[in-house]
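Subject: Interface between my chains keeps coming out wrong

I've been trying for a while to get a sensible model of this assembly. When I model each chain on its own everything looks fine, but I need the whole thing in one frame so I can look at the contacts. Pasting all components below, labels as-is. Any help appreciated, I'm running out of ideas.
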Amino acid sequence: MRIVFASGKGGAGKTTVTASLAALWPRPVIAADCDVEAPNLHLFLAPDLPEHAAITLDVPVLNAEKCTACGACKDICQYRAIARFGRKVLVFPDMCHGCGGCFAVCPEGALDTGKRELGALEEGTFSAAGARGRFIMGRTRIGEAMTPPLLRALLARLENMTAQAGDDVLIDSPPGVSCPAMTVAGRADMAVLVAEPTPFGFHDFKLAHAAFARTGAELAVVMNRSGMEGNEAGDAALRAWCAERRLPLLAELPFDRAAAEQYAGGGLIARTSPLWERRFRALAEALLQRAEQGGRHA
Amino acid sequence: MREIVVISGKGGTGKTSVCAALAHLASGGMTDAGKNIVICDLDVDAPDLHLLLSPAPRRREAFISGNEAEISPEVCIRCGKCAGLCKFGAVLHEEDAFVIDPMRCEGCGVCFRLCPAGAIAFPERECGEWYISDTRFGVMAHALLNPGQENSGRLVSLLKQQARELARENGAETILCDGSPGVGCPVISSLSGATLAVAVVEPTPSGVHDFERVAALCDHFRIPVTLIINKADLNPAETARIRALAGEKGRTVAAELPFSPDVTRAMIAGKALTETDSPLAGLLAGAWKTIDGLAAQAASHKTPNL
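Reply #2:
Try treating it as a single job with all components included. I did that and got this:
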């Protein structure tokens, strides 16, 4: 069972929910942080990450001796990573998306394969509150604009890890509804949208719902920070919206300053109090039950 | 002209609420000294600033970005060359046909150019809409990406270009941008040409971790960073550490805002915090003074980037 925790709005509580669930998940589990631009799950699960692999993109390197400046490589490049000035061809490897078109069309074999580092995968194990599990995350190199290839490498690695043992996977997704978030959700059995019932949160949740509905993953909702003073109408609106669409609302996690402080101190919010622990155990139970009933591949 | 971009690294730290307040202040709010500004929402994945500024669009355009491959099954000879060439795994072999998965297609055009049967079309891709609108604080450039679309970096560049043209037309001195979370493509586009970055940081492990990554990105592009520590009282020790680190790096802390339900209250009312009677308004007014000064200083050190 592969569950991705996603949201349109950043800061809705994806990482908080993923971390607490991973720490008390009743079955063998892998916690995966796919928010490669701003990974945070490791800050709460404190994994030991001995394995480290750089992920690179194949980019062209010009062999000036073989190049006849015919311009075929420049013509096929959609990303303006290759330019020609007179009889001189210039390659801008930072602009390259790694499509391989230039290699395919160069009649002289004048392009060698170079590597651009996109970021790294880090892998190991965590043990939080007695539970143990495996952990994997990706981290982009600062200044790198392309995240999808790093994500694909992370997802491919995750595929390998689950092929061996069939562990459940809890995935912390990138925020937003564009390519990185959709790439991740496309591989999950179930997408849990963590939604904040504020005007910003509700607005972005609806955007996320529209996007994730197209991925084929089963959808469910966790409302985070319900019961905020003065926002009763927001809570009710989110509940009604889910009910109308028969979207299962698996949990309502109330706003609680003690939980916010627990999080700010780097703690798991399931450890705020016995009541918070029960809330997360119930949520884990509800997720597993849905997994038994359906889920895309279950 | 100065471009001030509000960023955070981590999502949900309060960028948009801060940005709306700064827009109000920059346009002369709380002082009655009305100024021309241009506002720009660069969080095109999940834009929220319009919920506070209620923009009235005066112009609406489709956002066309790049192209997308399409295989015609009638012309396709099933040779599979496209599938072999595609580095993005976007050509799926389904039973007796090859089809493009639009979610994976990177729009590189390699299959289109090299298909021996000419069976692949490469139409333009409509990825969303962008708008020029009027708000009570000034003119605003904003957009909405279609769900699941990509190329948000290009949309960010387009909005910034529009904002710069508007600023020139209106003689506006300040462009104020609400950035997106993360450190990737849209954030890099947001920061390009910026005079000053205002980072909204919360004193949590995630907040600090992601702030450090986005601050490193600003250093990389040599863009000065000033901080607003939000929800500062949730972890006073961490707030003190952020303040000390900022001092070491020569970065100013423009304000420390306490955690307050006023933020959500203002959001529900569709107002900037500085339009309410929240005590945060005064702190934000002080922050704007500092930011305004720092931006003027940074702009004088820099040739305008147009």
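Reply #3:
Confirming on my end. The two ends of chain B are 9 Å apart (CA to CA).
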